[in-house]
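#random but structural
TW: two for the price of one
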Amino acid sequence: MEELRAFASSVPDFRRLDKGNFRHSLNDIIMLMILGRMAGCI
């Protein structure tokens, strides 16, 4: 699990943060995608 967190935090975030459209961190989004896929979600 720690390796997944390290991978998620190593991905650079290229979103425009100055537009006020930033609700969730990229780390959280990537972790949700990985864990959802591991659980069998499509």
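TW: number two ↓
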Amino acid sequence: MNRVREYREKQGLSQFALSQKIGVARQTINLIENNKYNPSLNLCISLAKVLGTDLNGLFWEEEDGK
């Protein structure tokens, strides 16, 4: 589970706009959001920076199970 889509939408970014900011294909963003691709650590860090969060907030479940 990840919150890439949630954070991307909060930032008002399309998948394409986010992909351009981090230098990957739009399809990569789509695959990550749909849990069909496990991004590298460097890509995870780039996503977190652009989306204004940290790795814990973006990729790990909260304690209450959300």
